[in-house]
Amino acid sequence: MSQNGSHSRAPKAYFLVFAALMFFTALTVWAAFQHLGVWNTPVALAIAVTKALLVALIFMHLKSSPRLTILVVAASVLWLAFLIVITVSDYVTRAWLPIYPR
Amino acid sequence: MADAHAHAAAHAAPPELRHHFVDLPAQREASSLGMWLFLVTEVLFFGGMFTAYVVYRSTYRRAFEGASNLLDIKLGAINTGVLIMSSLTMAMAVWAASVGKKKLIILFLLATIGLGSVFLGIKYVEYKQKFDHHEVPGPHFVVPHDENTHEPLPRQAEMFFSLYFCMTGLHALHMIIGVGLLTWLIVKARADAFSPRYYTPVDNVGLYWHFVDIVWIFLFPLLYLLGRHTL
Q1: DSSP SS3 for B146
Q2: B169 vs chain A: nearest CA distance in angstroms?
Q3: Residue among A7, A33, A60 minimizing CB distance to B228
Q4: Could you tell me the pTM of the whole model?
Q5: In which domain, by residue range, is A78 found?
Q6: Which pLDDT does position A93 carry in this prediction?
Q7: Which of A14, B17, B182, B203 gets the highest tally of CB atoms within 10 A of its CB?
Q8: CA dihedral over A64, A69, A71, A77, signed as positive or negative
Q9: Looking at residue B8, what is its pLDDT?
């Protein structure tokens, strides 16, 4: 039933989220052409994460989902972080050792 | 005792309720959780490619930035908008199902299919350009020139295009499967299979469609935008 309660006001929220997603798309294209030094990628990723959260929370009803569902989704993000962080920590630190000359 | 349960269930159970669930909300929560679990496996499926991208992009930065600048940013941005719009129509289809408006369900599902097809059509145009310019990895690949310096890019530009085709290709495959699922939903909706009490298939295909949208939300900046500040 968790879904039914939120659906009555749903269309308005959906259009607001749609407008926000379009705005963030324009923003990320604009930001990509600015000279932000090392910050170009973090800014692009921050905007992408914001957009993904909007889609997940509102379009996918995660906001009004049972806690178990939210836990499962959070776990997927955690495991994805393990995958990327551990792999990158290997590749980044290889150059520190003399056995892998570049 | 089992008899009493069966009796009570047979007495009150609506036809769309499977016997092993207490009631419809429990059934809905279970099916939704199952769909999310599938999407978790998808996160890690795409996650492997994103990891490969992160590793090679950090290793061959200049090749990746130069090759990325050769993608058509206008088509990429338009496709992002098209996909976001299709997510809106999908969300509206799920809403229409939850309030039992059959005509609206079909209308919004058709709009979602239409927008998904536009996305795939634009993707085809982009792929065609890449084939014409010999920027597809393989025997016919020609190392492209930098947009700024007009010198040849490092040869790892080919790796960028390998990742580009794998990631966008896998994403497009998900879109094609999604269009198939939406078509199936329209057939079911026309046959009056959904009601405000039961519209689980619409809900779950909606989750799938939005997930595919989220993947593109990350693919667009990572593939199309990473080198633009060098122009």
Answers
A1: coil
A2: 20
A3: A33
A4: 0.91
A5: 67-102
A6: 86
A7: B182
A8: negative
A9: 53
- Tell me whether residues B95 and A35 touch, CB distance under 8 A: no
pLDDT at B14: 76
- How confident is the model over A50-54, as a mean pLDDT? 97
pLDDT in tens, B72-87: 999 999 999 999 999 9
Q: Are B100 and B195 in contact (CB under 8 A)?
A: yes
pLDDT tens per residue across span A2-25: 444 444 567 999 999 999 999 999
Residue found under tokens 């009555």 = A8
Can you give the pLDDT at residue B5? 55
Average model confidence (pLDDT) across chain B: 93
What's chain A's average pLDDT? 88
pLDDT higher than 60, residue B200: yes
Residues B40, A76: contact at Cβ < 8 Å? yes
- Mean pLDDT, residues B200-224: 97
Question: What residue ranges do the domains of chain B occupy?
Answer: 21-230
Contact B214 A36 (CB under 8 A): no
Cα-Cα-Cα-Cα dihedral sign, residues B167, B152, B224, A40: positive
Residue B192, SS3?
coil
Contact B98 A3 (CB under 8 A): yes
Question: In terms of domains, do A81 and A61 share one?
Answer: no
Q: Which residues pair with B145 in a beta bridge?
A: B152
Provide the H-helix boundaries in chain A. 2-7, 10-32, 40-54, 67-94
Per-residue pLDDT averaged across B171-199, rounded?
Answer: 97
Nearest-neighbour CA in chain B from A36: distance (Å): 8
What does the block give as tokens for A35? 């000279």
If contacts are CB pairs under 8 Å, which of residues 71-100 in chain A contact chain B?
72-73, 75-77, 79-80, 83-84, 87-88, 91-92
Cα–Cα distance for residue pair B98/B203, rounded to 1 Å: 9
Number of domains within chain A? 2
Domain at B21-230, CATH from 3.30.565.10, 1.25.40.10, 1.20.120.80, 2.30.110.20: 1.20.120.80
